[in-house]
Amino acid sequence: MGLADRLNDAPARMTGKPCSVGALLERLDGDEREALEAMLYRLGWSQRRIYDDCIAEGYIIGEQSINRHRSQGCRCFK
Question: In whole angstroms, how far apart are CA 76 and each of 24, 26, 56, 65, 73?
């Protein structure tokens, strides 16, 4: 099984309240959402740097929620 085959097995979103990172992603749109997604998934930013920059911009997220969300281990995913 290759990585492309695993795309079909992506975790389904849970119903209910998302984690703080998922909630922030739902509230953001446009460039802000794209920037946070890049920080989380494409640019290799550390958990601490993402947390510090979000807090500096007035967004409240849990520091530990960042890596849980990245690994799909939070309540946003089954």
Answer: 12, 11, 24, 11, 8
